[in-house]
Amino acid sequence: MTAKIISGKDVAQEIRKELHQEVLEMKEKHNVVPGLVTILVGENPASVSYVTGKQKTAHELEFHSIQDNQPDDITEDALLELIDTYNNDPSIHGILVQLPLPKHINEKKVINAIDPDKDVDGFHPVNVGRLMIGGDEAKYLPCTPAGIQELIVRSGVQTEGAEVVVVGRSNIVGKPIANILLQKADGANATVTVVHTRSKDMEGHCKRADILIVAAGVPGLVKPEWIKPGACVIDVGVNRVGEKISEKTGRKIAILKGDVDFDAAKEIAGSITPVPGGVGPMTITMLMKNTVKAAKYAGGIA
Ligand code: GUN
């Protein structure tokens, strides 16, 4: 059997079209334009590439968008002050500080300084708490896990009662996706197990999964024989394993590999996300979705 390939590119495109329509309507009916600032500290190549993608999409959707580049020796106090400026700027509805930050800056302090109503990353403890409670309380879901849920639901995979196994327990992916899929809600209602570096039988758990979500950051961690025939496999791993020259642009680009051996896994799984082109494009799209939501709340439209 060859798995159905779940294209994050296609699903992301579909959602972006829906969002663009919403943005045009908000502008016309309410004179509200979603505003997003992405703050980049330093020049980490991966971060530059992520932030460029976010800004490009914001432009395409006709947001008011600002790219705020700061030197990598900016002081923590200066960064906190900058965040405060955007917290108080009514034209900005969403604030994203690209992570990781240089070592001299305390990430927790920075995340906590963002107004929870403008925290379109969904990383502020208030929004993490809201997600745990679920239902109407949940406001901004973190972007990668929210994108994973959309991919699963829009590709027609049943979550209700499904055995979901999440590999990895990060605050950005593992913990929130586990919480999202166990909610009492459509597109959730799953039985969720989270495995991690200290789990006794990672393989045994993975083999039971109807939906296997791998976010460990270890290339090829999940072996093809760990996959239950017909399972839905979501590979969140984006591991830079080398460089090559792009055929399109002639420039050097990273060679990316997932946490799952895609070629072997696609012969066993029922559906699977590729790397790149799977979860990646969804993360940016869900950031746009959260920013539209934030603008609606601020404009009294929601
Ligand atoms: N670095 C890697 N992923 C993310 C993300 O989703 N948000 C932010 N702010 N930084 C990141």
Account of the protein in words:
The model has no long low-confidence stretch (mean pLDDT 97). The protein has 302 residues and is α/β, with parallel strands linked by helices. α2 links the parallel β2 (35-41) and β3. It has 10 helices and 11 strands. It has a 6-stranded parallel beta sheet with strand order 1-11-8-7-5-6. It has a 3-stranded parallel beta sheet with strand order 3-2-4, with helices on both faces. A two-stranded antiparallel sheet has the order 9-10. The site of guanine has 8 residues, from β4 and α6.
Features:
10 helices; globular; three-stranded parallel β-sheet; binds guanine; about 300 residues; alpha/beta; single chain; six-stranded parallel β-sheet
Number of helices: 10
Ligand species? guanine
Rg over CA atoms = 19 Å
Largest sheet: 6 strands, parallel
**What are the low-pLDDT stretches, counting only 5+ consecutive residues below 50?**
none
Instruction: Indicate the structural class.
Output: alpha/beta
Strand order of the largest sheet: 1-11-8-7-5-6
**Terminus-to-terminus distance:** 45 Å
Order of helices and strands: EHEHEHEHHHEHEHEEEEHEH
Q: In one word, what is the shape?
A: globular
Mean pLDDT: 97
